[in-house]
Specification:
Layout (H helix, E strand, L loop, with lengths): L3 E2 L6 E8 L5 H12 L13 E4 L6 E3 L2 E2 L3 E5 L5 E10 L3 E6 L2 E10 L4 E9 L11
Antiparallel strand pairs: 1-2, 2-10, 3-6, 4-5, 6-7, 7-8, 8-9, 9-10
Length: 134
């Protein structure tokens, strides 16, 4: 999935891809969005993973994920890093924030093909500079 700079907003970049049909593809895409940005090493030279702190009881969608879920770790320089889910619409949208960066994941089902459209957007200082991020 490629990420291109916005021609409108210098602090915005976005990408999208279609995931072929499959068993419960929308739910699978949504769960991927919850976990992909916080549980994988970013690049070979920047191994960054996070520990998850569940959202308040009763506010979760699945497995403790919901508004208020926090992910804590350390960035490449060893400084503390925290991401927090600020908005969650089950099977549709997840918004996470860290410092002055906002990450928005969106999923939707294409009824005609059965595929899942998976979208990702960065909003924050310098994010419009990304050419190929995802």
């Amino acid at each position: 999935m490629g990420c291109g700079p916005s021609t409108v907003l210098p602090g915005h970049a976005e990408a999208e891809t279609m995931v072929p049909e499959g068993a419960d593809v929308l739910r699978a895409c949504f769960l991927l969005c919850l976990k992909v940005d916080v549980y994988q090493p970013k690049y070979a030279n920047i191994k960054m993973t996070f520990a998850m702190k569940p959202c308040p009881t009763g506010a979760g969608f699945v497995e403790g994920y919901g508004v208020g879920t926090m992910f804590e770790g350390k960035n490449a320089m060893g400084a503390p890093e925290r991401r927090t889910i600020k908005e969650l619409v089950p099977l549709q949208k997840i918004v996470m924030e860290t410092h002055d960066l906002r990450m928005t994941y969106s999923t939707s089902l294409d009824v005609s093909s059965g595929a899942c459209k998976l979208s990702y957007a960065f909003d924050g200082y310098g994010m419009g500079l990304f050419q190929r991020q995802l």
